[in-house]
Specification:
Layout (H helix, E strand, L loop, with lengths): L3 H43 L4 H16 L3 E3 L2 E3 L2
Antiparallel strand pairs: 1-2
Helix pairs in contact: 1-2
Length: about 80
């Protein structure tokens, strides 16, 4: 049977592991967002689209995907 101090130490170690994973997850998300932004701007530049239109379309598409909708022909549609 473990004593209180050992139990407390294990809990603190577990919390440190969780904090480390959260930091890793945030780093991965920031990197992914950076790559996605770069790709969107590059695609917009290829199509000679204004940056504000690229951003608006990206948000609309992201929201639609999050709501399990589709975007076809520039219009948001149900699945």
């Amino acid at each position: 049977m473990i004593d209180f101090n050992e139990m407390k130490q294990r809990q603190e170690e577990g919390q440190q592991d969780i904090d480390s994973l959260i930091d890793d997850e945030q780093t991965v998300l920031k990197h992914y967002c950076s790559l996605a932004t770069e790709a969107l701007l590059r695609l917009g530049a290829q199509k000679k689209a204004p940056v504000d239109q690229v951003v608006i379309n990206s948000f609309r598409t992201g929201i639609a995907l999050g709501l399990r909708l589709t975007v076809a022909g520039g219009e948001v549609q149900g699945r």
